[in-house]
């Protein structure tokens, strides 16, 4: 790698490729276009540079996002100016909402044409300013190595997020003497500090000792800060039950006796009741999303104290009033807290929690045909022993995966939480698989979301990326249909997907093995065949369109006001 640091004359594009090598980038996802052809020409000269050609820019950025979430590294994608760049916007917003580190590299028209409405010109820095952690417009080729270094630093420190830098075509072809900054940059106005306050940690420990009904709400921050071991130690030392948000799933082992499930709109009875009846609520890396709190004014009404551990001070007190703010890196906060952590007076509380877990587990009315989506997720969980990486799309498939897959490890669930982006699930699985070639990656989709990025099947076929693609096919926009049934009095409007393609034939058309299952026997056989196949496989699980996700809390209700379903 030392030769990459040598001072010699290169183009801006060559400097970019060299800089990405220095930053340790393993793979870039992208699509070429006129404004980035200089960059792609530079790639041609570096055969070892791994680039995966997506079929749509949204597929490229979702793949980079899945890579980042599954590995903890920075994901990288390329796109050209104008429509190429604007096609990335949904993916940038998806990563921003979920604090995912991405470096997004776009081309732009030559500097002299910026602002003239030139062909394929768009102000991508202006467009993405509200949905990115930071962005740059590179006007001088000599600024490029430093900007790249800053971009990776900003994306991967503090509260992580996407950083965009836009390179005009003339800058990418200009010559420069290559020098790469060797040190962590000093950036005016950006001083991420993960060091927590010892005083606030001591307040938290005193509150725990005095609490009789404490509960931990653990979110994606636990996963992103690699603090799962510290959370486990903290929960066991304090004997506090743990509920994990959608993005926090895997941050605490699902099989542990202290885990009480996911909270919120489709949370477990035990988790929601615990949040409503606790006297001490400790939020760890969770931002009190509205799908967790539901009616905010009625959230955790018995909590005498709410503690909030988060690296982003802007999240403290934003949604709920916080009594004990612990600003800092979750891992560092928990490491300090674990030195003196001990249980409070919560033995009776734990007995109540365990009784609720026994009496009110997740249930569904099982059947052989129609095939139940809950059964499919249980089958996948059992046969993979909870060791797979699961990516999901958005909607019912996402909730069934969250409810019925037993996650053992962090970074095992890749899903769009904050933005709820349909089309995310399948391309993110490609990125997760590229970043984890030795792991089983399962992409769980609805028939609606899958069609939004189905063209990325070509990537799996060409590169033999062995993602197992699960489609829970109910021929409707399932969560839309569920809301229209339960909230809109059966007024079903434009949720019918009966004109969708035959997904088995679609997979085969791309060169991917396609299978179908309509009952339990077929489901077990098809899943085993997929597991035994070393390449990519798509399985179309045909389910009933009337199947709903339960429990459910309707908008405007408190989280303990749950519709439990027919099997309550």
TrEMBL record:
Residues 201-336 form the Thiamine pyrophosphate enzyme central domain. SUPFAM superfamilies: DHS-like NAD/FAD-binding domain, Thiamin diphosphate-binding fold (THDP-binding). GO terms for cellular component: acetolactate synthase complex. It catalyses: 2 pyruvate + H(+) = (2S)-2-acetolactate + CO2. GO terms for molecular function: acetolactate synthase activity; flavin adenine dinucleotide binding; magnesium ion binding; thiamine pyrophosphate binding. GO terms for biological process: isoleucine biosynthetic process; L-valine biosynthetic process. Keywords: Amino-acid biosynthesis, Branched-chain amino acid biosynthesis, FAD, Flavoprotein, Magnesium, Metal-binding, Thiamine pyrophosphate, Transferase. Transmembrane segments: none annotated. Binds 1 thiamine pyrophosphate per subunit. Residues 393-541 form the Thiamine pyrophosphate enzyme TPP-binding domain. Pfam families: TPP_enzyme_C, TPP_enzyme_M, TPP_enzyme_N. Residues 11-125 form the Thiamine pyrophosphate enzyme N-terminal TPP-binding domain. Its EC number is 2.2.1.6. Belongs to the TPP enzyme family. This is Acetolactate synthase. It comes from Paenibacillus albus.
